[in-house]
Write a structure and sequence with these properties.
Blueprint: H1 6-14, E1 32-38, H2 42-49, E2 64-69, E3 72-77, E4 86-92, H3 96-106, H4 117-127, H5 161-170, E5 174-181, E6 194-197, E7 200-211, E8 216-224, E9 234-238, E10 241-247
Antiparallel strand pairs: 1-4, 2-3, 3-4, 5-8, 5-10, 6-7, 6-9, 7-8, 9-10
């Protein structure tokens, strides 16, 4: 889970500990700060501040590595939510300002910029990533969201395995789709907006935003599987305006081969 879900994850873990006390949980959220370094030059930037080899062969996507940034120890997770090469840095709180200032100073030659959550929200829509609390909710299954590959039903028993096995066998009723609206400008699009097909509301949007790379407005939404036709005619209504929308064949509009994040 991301850094915003510490309370939820802590609650879940504490409520599922084995009764024999063989496992304990220690809350350390307040002891660490998280800094994301993201972009095609992020490795070059970090390499200026560390002696560790963080090249692709020694620090592959999806792995963790401990090293030093400037004078600070960090634990880094090589992962990204925006479709570019990226690193999450978990820094002891007392070193957080030092690490940020070191990154900022070293990054001037690369054109470093601060980016907020709206930037992440825009880029994750282009990349096809689902968002917890928006696309990922108790109302839909991992198979509806296109995340069946994350469910390892061949593993030993785990919480929810029997239910997920039945759900997979029955087949998905809903499909998470990506719609684009080519209006030539960013639009104010609301969440939970009606998705219309042949005059009938068949679903609602979950997330919406503007893709600055693809230059289109992007909406995610669940619709019935049988209604998901790339050649179909769709509309999305938002704030009493109805916009023609295109159902994209793939939810991944940017770098579908994942070359950028695996570089």
């Amino acid at each position: 889970m991301g850094t915003a879900f510490g309370l939820r994850v802590s609650w879940w873990l504490k409520n599922h500990l084995p009764p024999d006390n063989s496992v304990t949980v220690k809350e350390v959220t307040s002891a660490y700060a998280a800094v994301n370094v993201i972009g095609p030059k992020s490795r070059q930037l970090l390499q200026k501040l560390t002696k560790a080899d963080i090249g692709n062969e020694n620090f592959a996507f999806g792995t963790c590595k401990e090293f030093t940034i400037a004078y600070a120890p960090v634990m880094s997770f090589r992962v990204t939510y925006v479709g570019e090469l990226g690193y999450e840095l978990y820094v002891p709180a007392e070193f957080a300002a030092h690490v940020y200032e070191s990154l900022w100073e070293a990054g001037q030659s690369f054109g470093i910029k601060n980016a907020g959550y709206r930037t992440i929200a825009s880029m994750h829509l282009e990349k096809g990533y689902a968002d917890w609390g928006s696309e990922l909710t108790p109302e839909y299954t991992p198979f509806d969201a296109g995340l069946g590959f994350c469910v390892a039903l061949n593993k030993a028993d785990f919480i929810g395995k029997q239910a997920l096995t039945r759900i997979k066998a029955a087949g998905s009723k809903w499909k998470l789709c990506s719609f684009t609206i080519d209006a030539g400008r960013p639009l104010m699009l609301q969440g939970s907006a009606p998705i219309i097909h042949q005059g009938e509301v068949i679903g609602t949007t979950t997330s919406s935003g503007y893709g600055h790379t693809v230059k289109k407005n992007i909406c995610y939404g669940y619709i019935p599987v049988e209604k998901a036709d790339p050649d179909g005619v769709y509309e999305i209504e938002s704030y009493k305006e109805v916009y023609p929308a295109t159902l994209e064949p793939s939810r991944v509009l940017y770098d579908p081969e994942r070359r950028r994040i695996l570089m």
